[in-house]
Design a protein that fits this description.
By secondary structure, the chain is an alpha+beta fold. It is built from 12 helices and 36 strands. The strands form 8 sheets. It has an 8-stranded mixed beta sheet with strand order 5-4-8-2-1-11-14-13, with no helix packed on it. The longest helix is centred in the middle third of the chain and has 23 residues. The two termini are about 30 Å apart. Bound molecules: zinc ion. Zinc ion (ZN) binds next to helix 4 and helix 5.
Length: about 650
């Protein structure tokens, strides 16, 4: 899924009740996993959406529950939000039910007591009849839940701002936690002039005699987490003539008639996306590739992705949003997070896959550009907007949300760094192993770590601590010293007070050998606070901007070379250094104290003035904005007290 919002979460206390005769099953928080004594294997639901324009539903949801152990009259929890429960049946017996908590609670649900003992492996059906006007997560920019817009009624499976995350409970009575995956069989009753798109395969469309309604049946034979279930009702048409993938699965696109032409163009590369991801991650795991255009989105509903109609109208065949959601069919849908604290396992890998899609279409250089864009956006903007968060179990408190941009942007770069450390072959083989081992089930961050443990040359444990469980990024200060055979490049980590040290930093270096002059394009793992190497020419030395790798790192470049002999002749008080920020947004000039200069002017080689500032003895640092300056050589001219200093710097974007 992809969107940007803000959230507030209330922290709930979970109490654990243990009784001798009746075991009360607590519903875990959306970000926690508790073993339950049951497993929901299948949902059969009928939703009467005859009045779909008013969001009114009359429904029946039958949950097939397999018990894991012998229990005396256990209780069973189910979620339903904003709708009225009319009655509940256990098998064929009408049964009492109880509301647990208030709708403000993140674990708000209902409980049914089975009244009879159950034995291990026994299968019971629990049927909930309910009705009402379907709602969504609410707030200023609602996402998760049910919407009626643009003549269509549709559901999005997760919320950004709600404290319960999975939003399927806004339309389906279900155990709404990602840990319990089930197959589905949905029947929708809608007017004849609309159709329904949903998960799995369309089994039948049958007219209901003497009415102007028809009954549409969708069945899904692979289990899904409840947050991946969806439906969309509207005057849709389906695009015809799509090619089939290696598995011969059908491709279905539900679009409004007015969007047929643009959607055909926007979805035209989807079969190539599928083949690309099959080569990287293994066979497409499901029975259908499906997209439905909706006002809001995008959301990776299993086999029926909701894509914002604005994206489908763009006629952009690269369609990285469609690629992101498609990659989720492997990362998120086939292998689902056991709870939402592991959401990076889905979003980091789907965003990484956008980078891999760019690589497939345009080559490795474009891949590096997309990784770099994610890294720069994360460091310069996202970390400032939503706080410096870890990938695993991040804060959901505003300005963060259930899906902060951190897990997308930082996540995608961290996955690219895992690839750099492993090498392409080992990296993709490891991902395939992880996907196979947990296929059609759930996984945790530790499962991903276990998969990569042997693949990262002993670095995995520390790497996960620093990049997945930890926060922040390394800030490297680069200095050049004049050596006998050429400059010595001296790199020091400077972020320790803020984020601690990073000792598993893959760093691409590109420079000419100090003796042979030969181009070296290599990856080093920076495993201590400093790194030093000799290069023939500092103007041709690149750190994290070479031709092969990008990492999440900020680099402060100096443009002056320390010359020990020359320095001896210059009084300390006249020295200054200029650094160009790695982001190329700013240059920084640092002075020694006290500053003897009174004016600073930035010019290009023709003497054109770009920026000027007065200086005082207290000025120890000046930030020069570089916006609007083209590639080329520039000069920082500093004057005062009868002295002057010129510091050259280069801009090459
Ligand atoms: Zn996503």
């Amino acid at each position: 899924m992809r969107n940007i919002t803000i959230s507030v979460i209330t922290i709930a206390l979970v109490t654990f009740l243990m009784a001798e005769l009746a075991v009360a099953q607590n519903v875990p928080l959306p970000t926690r996993f508790d073993n339950q004594p049951f497993d929901i294997e299948h949902y059969t639901a009928t939703l009467d959406l005859t009045e779909y324009k008013t969001k009114f539903v009359t429904a029946e949801s039958k949950m097939f529950v397999r018990w894991n152990s012998d229990l005396t009259a256990p209780t069973f929890p189910f979620h339903l939000r904003g709708l009225t429960v009319d009655s509940v049946f256990v098998n064929n017996s009408r049964t009492a039910f109880e509301q647990i908590g208030t709708p403000a609670s993140d674990t708000f649900h209902y409980e049914v007591t089975t009244t009879k003992p159950v034995s291990k492996n026994q299968l019971d059906s629990i049927t909930v009849f309910y009705h009402g006007v379907m709602t969504n997560e609410g707030g200023t920019s609602p996402w998760g839940g049910v919407h009626y817009e643009d003549e269509t009624l549709y559901a999005l499976g997760v919320g950004f701002n709600n404290n319960y995350v999975s939003a399927t409970q806004h339309w389906l009575a279900c155990y709404d936690h990602p840990s319990d995956k089930a197959t589905t069989d949905f029947t929708f009753i809608v007017p004849n002039d609309v159709v329904v798109a949903s998960n799995g395969l369309l089994k039948s469309t049958t007219a209901i005699p003497t009415t102007n309604q028809h009954r549409i049946v969708w069945q899904m034979s692979n289990p899904a987490s409840t947050y991946l279930l969806t439906f969309a009702v509207g005057p849709y048409t389906t695009l015809a003539g799509n090619t089939k993938s290696n598995q011969n699965v059908p491709y279905e696109y539900y679009v409004l008639p007015r969007d047929t032409v643009s959607s055909k163009i926007s979805y035209s590369l989807v079969p190539i996306m599928v083949r690309t991801f099959e080569q990287l991650y293994g066979d497409y795991p499901f029975e259908k590739v499906g997209y439905v255009n909706t006002q809001r989105g995008a959301m990776e509903h299993q086999t029926m992705i909701s894509l914002p109609v604005s994206v489908a109208q763009r006629k952009d065949t690269v369609n990285s949003t469609a690629a992101h959601e498609l990659a989720h069919q492997w990362f998120g849908d086939c292998v689902s997070p056991v709870d939402f604290s592991h959401a990076w396992l889905t979003e980091a890998f789907a965003t990484y896959s956008e980078q891999a899609w760019a690589e497939h279409l345009f080559g490795h250089e474009q891949y590096l550009k997309t990784v770099e864009t994610n890294a720069r956006t994360y460091i310069n903007r996202t970390s400032k907007n939503e706080g410096v968060l870890p990938l695993y179990d991040f804060s959901r408190i505003a300005p963060s949300s259930n899906y902060p941009q951190t897990i997308y942007q930082k996540g995608a770069v961290v996955v690219a760094m895992m690839r750099a450390i492993c090498g392409d072959e080992v990296f993709y083989a490891t991902l395939q192993k992880y996907l196979q081992e947990h296929a059609y089930g759930t996984a945790t961050t530790d499962d991903m770590y276990q998969a990569f443990k042997g693949a990262m040359g002993g670095l995995a444990e520390k790497f996960f601590q620093e990049w997945v469980y930890g926060r922040g990024w390394p800030v490297l200060k680069v200095e050049y010293w004049e050596g006998f055979a050429g400059p010595i490049v001296f790199i020091t980590q400077t972020q320790q007070d803020k984020f601690g040290s990073f000792h598993t930093l893959p760093l691409g270096l590109r420079y000419n050998h100090h003796i042979t002059g030969k181009l070296i394009d290599t990856l080093v793992i920076m495993s201590s606070d400093t790194l030093m190497f000799s290069a023939a020419d500092i103007t041709k030395t690149y750190i994290n901007v070479g031709s092969s790798y990008r990492s999440l790192v900020e680099i402060l470049y100096p443009t002056t070379v320390h010359d020990d002999n020359a320095d001896a002749d210059i009084a300390d008080s006249t020295r200054a250094t200029v650094y160009v920020d790695d982001s190329k947004n700013n240059a920084k000039v640092e002075f020694v104290t006290p500053n003897i200069y009174s004016e600073l002017i930035v010019t290009d080689s023709t003497g054109r003035v770009y920026w000027r500032s007065a200086l005082t003895p207290e000025t120890l640092q000046i930030v020069i904005p570089l916006g609007g300056m083209a590639n080329g050589a520039y000069y920082v001219n500093i004057t005062g007290n009868g002295k002057s200093l010129t510091l050259p710097f280069m801009l090459s974007f």
